[in-house]
Amino acid sequence: MSASVTTPAVGTTTATSDPASTGAAPYRLSPEHRRVFVGLMLGMLVASVSQTIVGPAMPRIVAELGGIDHYSWVATAAMLVSACTVPVVGKLSDIFGRRGFYLAGIIVFIVGSLICGFSQNFWMLVAGRAVQGLGMGTLMPLSQTIIGDIIPPRQRGKYQGLMGAVFGVTSVAGPLAGGVITDHLGWRYLFFVAVPIGLVAFVVIGRFLHLEHTAREVTIDYAGIATLTVALTSLLLATSLGGTSWAWGSAESIGLYALGVVALISFIAIERRAVEPVIPLRLFSSKVFSMANIAAFGVSMVMFGAIIYIPVFAQGVIGVDATNSGLILMPLMVGFIGLGIITGQLITRTGRYLPFMITGVLVMALGIFLLTRLDHTATQTQLTVAMTVLGLGLGMAMQQYALVVQNDVPRRDLGVATATVQFFRNVGSTVGIAVFGTIMTSGLADRIAGHLPAGAQQQMGDGGVSIGSVLDPSALSKLPPVVADAVRQGLAESLHNVFLIGLPILAVVLVATALIPAKPLRETLDHPSEAVSDRAE
């Protein structure tokens, strides 16, 4: 018999239809698994907040430790290691079980936090962030996967909505907390604060998470892991640093892209022959799996592009105070959290997900369209409306792609399938930020100059207007009014192009989402194919 058959029941009654219509008791998590869910939320909290809490303190960190020329490596190190870890841990957890990996991920993350907090130089901090990335790449996909282990798909939507709310809260609370902690305790406590939360999560998960698992003898796909790591590192590094640290046409960028493509082709060839591939290519034969990952990639591009460049518009064009930058995205995140929770409840109640996902993509497109209508005369109210609409659409759609994939795959592939969705999200965010950043900076100086009256160029000074001054309202306020207005107009035009590119991306997302077959959400943890296999045994 397979391991899934011997897994204990999770809740009380698992009805096969709406409990309200059958008189059956509503689904409830058992007390033990309720505690597990709390532990998973804490694990997600420390992993996700680490991505946002450091931003406000970076100028102070660099001032103390040095490393201004390699500023971006603090974020890049964690991102690269996390992206490489996600698919590998997802596969290994399918083979060896999840509990040990999740607990190890918490410990690794805590160790990385301590290294960062005690850093004596810039590169020690980068090393600590890399260790944190290893923990993040373990905790984030396995949190979603373990939910799939203990909660049937029909009931899973509302719990995944709550998990998504953790990300939304940390996106807003992280920068705010980062500023407060840095000002009152010092930047090192940004990393120390994660330690007690991580320890509580470790104790809760260690005490209450007990999943049945039957180990099987396998051949680890070391060649696949190696080539995948080289491919991801090369491609993501070139994408992250291209156009900033390196020119897109530089030898470094071209060389890394070439290495990444060769490694990726080698990886695919290896996976086609591997006995236990790290990412089974057969999963992509499922339209649900392939379309959901394409859509998740595009949604992540748009979401992270918005998270990065909406504050740029607010500060550089409208003139919102940079000290309150953590609050700029509040309307977007409130919509994301609220509709995420409500949509999860509705999916659990109705058993239908596709109408909500398609509607969510359309609402996202409306939000992006409203952003494209903003110019240098836009008000904060207009920006708030556009952000809120975008957040509502994200809340309806984003979390559901993991749900439909988990509903489609057998439990033996649950870890790698969930990790693949997380992987496509990670890569989408990296690509989105890089692409949108290139669009914003390309031609920005010419656009600003195009709005200057004859002779006004001299008022900008010998060095012109830097990107830093464009994004700093206090610096803009010191410029002559005619120059400041030209800066706002030029930046607004560049950001118009940034937002505009989101519309064709969402068109692809809409098509991919519409092509996802609408399958009934299972009321049990077992996949039908596994039930047939068990009866045959």
TrEMBL record:
Species of the source: Janibacter melonis
UniProt keyword annotation of Transferase present: no
NCBIfam families assigned to the protein according to its UniProt record, in alphabetical order: efflux_EmrB
GO CC term (a single one): plasma membrane
Protein name per UniProt: Multidrug transporter
Domain of life: Bacteria
Entry keywords, A to Z: Cell membrane, Membrane, Transmembrane, Transmembrane helix, Transport
Location(s) in or outside the cell: Cell membrane
Record's bilayer topology term: Multi-pass membrane protein
Annotated Major facilitator superfamily (MFS) profile domain residues: 36-520
